[in-house]
Design a protein that fits this description.
Length: about 300
């Protein structure tokens, strides 16, 4: 059982169904992608895990038992709607938020100093939040989310507002926190980040769980059984019962072909058939696995 287990969670707001019998398990020590289009129910589920709102039915378990308010103190939550007090100084606000999570002033000051140095923002301590850009404020809020070393972190669109350099900084910190044993729920529309960071995902659409599982497992499941062959010499010849040729393009003597495997044929079968074509010089041969972005669009539009 994972750090968070949702069992048949339902939530309605009047006649609007936000979550419809959603069940999922979030393993410890992994980065778990929570995906779905706008309005699908992701934020409602996150708020239920944080006990900001209560489900109409079903339950949420934390470490195998019903989640309590004490468990919420072990969670770091970065909401999509950023919320810092604009008139407060950055250092005072960071200290205040750290103390809300149970840290002493002394421990909070020591940890915050480390984080401010790591992010290169040690001279921001006396700045007012209203003086910061969106990306600068986002850095501060990320730090206040993780400074108390929570065992579970919920990051809702954590890369929003960042330039590529700072987005990469946040990615590396997320991976470092995972290596240190934290579990991270990552809610994002950035499918490239999902492929780079996530071990497992759950896709919610129209209030229901559509699919959950490992990223690599899902990408292979929704593959089209196609291969890319880059070759010289040739030409490549289709082999009845093994593969068809979907396309074959030539550029400066270098050919790129897309092959479609027949049902029941393995990648190794296709390679053996190609090796039997003695005029071919195989330069590259790989399975074409769909991107998470294509799978997301396919599943959501089919729904």
């Amino acid at each position: 059982m994972g750090i968070i287990t949702c069992k048949e969670v339902c939530k309605s707001f009047g006649e609007k169904v936000a979550l419809d019998h959603v069940s999922l398990d979030i393993p410890k020590g992994q980065i778990f992608g929570l995906l779905g289009p706008n309005g699908a129910g992701k934020t409602t589920l996150i708020r239920i895990i944080n006990r900001i709102t209560i489900p109409n039915a079903g339950e949420v378990l934390f470490d195998g038992r019903p989640i309590t308010q004490e468990d919420v103190e072990r969670i770091g939550y970065l909401p999509e709607e950023r919320g810092l007090y604009r008139k407060m100084e950055v250092g005072d606000q960071a200290l205040y938020l750290a103390q809300l999570k149970g840290m002493s002033v002394r421990d909070a000051q020591a940890e915050l100093k480390k984080w401010f140095i790591r992010f290169g923002i040690q001279d921001w301590w006396k700045k007012k939040v209203e003086e910061l850009s969106k990306g600068m404020a986002q850095k501060v809020q990320f730090i206040t989310t993780v400074v108390h070393k929570p065992s579970l972190m919920i990051l809702d669109e954590p890369f929003s507002g960042f330039d590529p350099v700072n987005a990469e900084l946040i990615r590396q910190e997320i991976l470092r926190l995972k290596d240190e044993g934290a579990t991270i729920i990552l809610s994002t529309h950035n499918m490239e980040s999902v492929e780079e960071l996530c071990d497992n995902i759950a896709l919610i659409n129209r209030s229901r769980l559509v699919i959950t599982g490992g990223v690599d497992e899902i990408r292979h499941k929704y593959g089209n059984n196609n291969l890319e062959l880059i070759y010289g010499g040739g030409p490549v010849v289709p082999v009845e019962g093994v593969f068809r040729i979907l396309s074959d393009e030539e550029n400066a003597g270098r050919h790129t072909a897309v092959l479609s495997l027949e049902s029941g044929i393995s990648t190794n079968d296709a390679l053996q058939a190609l090796l039997a074509q003695e005029s071919l010089l195989i330069r590259s041969f790989r399975e074409l696995i769909p991107r998470m972005n294509d799978i997301f669009i396919k599943l959501v539009t089919e729904e």
